[in-house]
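Translate sequence into structure tokens.
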Amino acid sequence: MTKVVSQQPNQKEIFQMTTYHFDDHAIHWNRFGDYVPPFHYTILHVDEKSRIADVLFKFPANEQIVLHRHRALNHTFVVQGEHRLYEADGSLREARLTGSYTVSPASEQPHREGGGEQDVIVCFSIRPGNDEVLYEVLDDAFNPLGTITFQTMVELYQAQQS
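Result follows.
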């Protein structure tokens, strides 16, 4: 008599077996700057009193967006796809699956982000406290290209509402 032993798949194997798709057709996506590859955002809410901005970002599949630093606390939740974080040299630092929730403090470490095999949609809850700068955008030589401030987010949210 042969005994059959079944092996339970791990979370990564389950994710690879099943493709989930979040229907984002009703979301008005805005292109973030003129960066290549392009990526998009929509601001869900900005609470000026508590200084919290809730934003959906959509990063392209198998691409790496512009180099940047997070200058504020970020809470993230992966809504669709695999959220990949890359070191400045392009090597993979971390992959976060659909349903992953992460709390990341501000960091001097620059990185890139992108999607796995499909576009990734990530909800960012950005919490700068009393600081103003949320993100610092860098060129490949680590020179600053610009900053995204809390006030920038307020103005983008107001423009999105009109």
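Note: The two ends are 72 Å apart (CA to CA).
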